[in-house]
Design brief:
The complex is a heterodimer of chains A (319) and B (244). With 319 residues, chain A is α/β, with parallel strands linked by helices. Chain A is built from 14 helices and ten strands. The radius of gyration of chain B is 21 Å and the shape is elongated. The chains are: A alpha/beta (319), B mainly alpha (244). At the A-B interface, helix 3, strand 7 and helix 9 of A face helix 3 and helix 9 of B.
Amino acid sequence: MRRLLATILAVVLTLALILPGAGCAPVEKEITVGNKNFTEQYIIGEMIKQLLENRGFTVNLVADLSSMALRQGMEAGDIDICADYTGTAWMVYLGHVYESGVDNNELYELVKAEDATTGGFTWLNPIWNNNTYVLVSWPEFVDENEVVTLSDLAALYQEGEAEITTFVDFEFSTRPDGLPALEEFYGFKVPEASLKTGAPGASLLGLENHGCEVAMAFGTDAIIGQYGWHVYQDDKSFFPPYDLTPYVSAEVLEVYPEIANILNELVATFPGGGELATPGIVAQGQVVWQELCAKVDIDMTEPEEVANDYLVEKGLLGE
Amino acid sequence: MRRYVVIVSLLVLLIGLTVWITNLEWIREGVYKPFTWGKILSCTWWHLIMVGAAEFAAILIGVPLGILVTRPGFKKLTTPVIGGANIGQSIPSLAVIAIMAPLLGFGLKSAIVALFIYGLLPVLRNSYAGINNIDPAIVEAAKGMGMTRGQIARKIELPLALPVIMTGIRISTVITVGTAELAVLVGGKGLGVITLTGVFTLQPLTILQGAAPTAALAITLGFILERVESWMTSRGLKVKAEMA
């Protein structure tokens, strides 16, 4: 009798193992979201994660990646969704040169078309926030040297009289849309001895402590406004637009086509979401993201909470 | 002789690798450019400066302190100093470096202080052990011969402890060369700039451009210090070592 019970138990257990959830539970919709290693990315990663979870997905968030790590993860199929920047995709992933004058809408269309064929990725609607690279300084330095634009700054470097310690992050120091290309475009050279490189965010710490004169930052970094730092205007239009855009591997989108609508819903809550960009819309988008980043960097709220508050406020999480 | 062959071929391999990558034409065409010679040399220079400054301070403080706690009047300090050094050694090097940024601010200074603290421990410990492990019978014999305390320290204890102390300095230097790779995270300079740029942009060849010279530097410094060690060891001790 006991042996019979044991046999039945074994059979039942084996069946439970080989038929996982057959008939009793719905198949889990598992998806992996990736984000990069700075504030805006922490927030958008959480937004995508929480929104998809709300719509019945099981989401695994791979956080804090560098641009190349994220892209390779997407290409290898380890990551299914992320939000990246049109300018980064165009110049770094697709290896093109940016031609001044190509606007936000045109660049988005170019990236969308090419990455669909080369990468097999579907770019969804963009959030127009142009989170571009910027160089910033304390206003005192700007007043003293009378530099307003990147051209002015380039001239100051070339004069070679002022000591201008310049602090950038590892990626920017070598990216094709980074410092070497910027130097070539504006015709200046930061002397080897006054160039500092560090981890993401380190340049901001450096400027905060007056450890450098010029620092690299992102357009939506809240700390710029907090300290009233001067942003050098890209007067010759070197940098491409960097609009934050969710993209998905086409294979994943085939299995879960609803993802496109869900994420486009999120995009639609931002200025001009789903429409064509205008300079006004882009400026509004930047302000919205500066405010979101300020909640994390200045008010010290967790990105998770900032994302949740935003989604609730916009009514995306339902009742 | 065979050891020389190993060291030289390792150095040739590492430096050759750096030369090869830096001269590669095809990656110059690519999206990410490799670092230039100027950058590699200036990073190597800064790496040496950081390690040199930290190691100099570590020797200046570690050796006297390690010897001091073996003296009869200071025996009470032995447990806190050596125990503290042992515990300190078990803290991950990244933590020692990272904690300096909030304490001392972001910059070269924090990096050097962190390297000094981490490099101090092997020097301190070996200086203590070098003196402490001397056979008491030898010291007794010296006393019996009528040597004063100062003479015993100068003529007996120091020469006997010197090889052990030098080993501590060598180990500390080699470790510091490696640890200094991380100094860039708190605003330092050095070859870590190249290695970490490679890590952040996921370029294996760039990572090697920073890592290979670092390894070559560690091997070279280790070798030089080993020669110094052997040169400073009294001949009598070497005879004993060969017979043993």
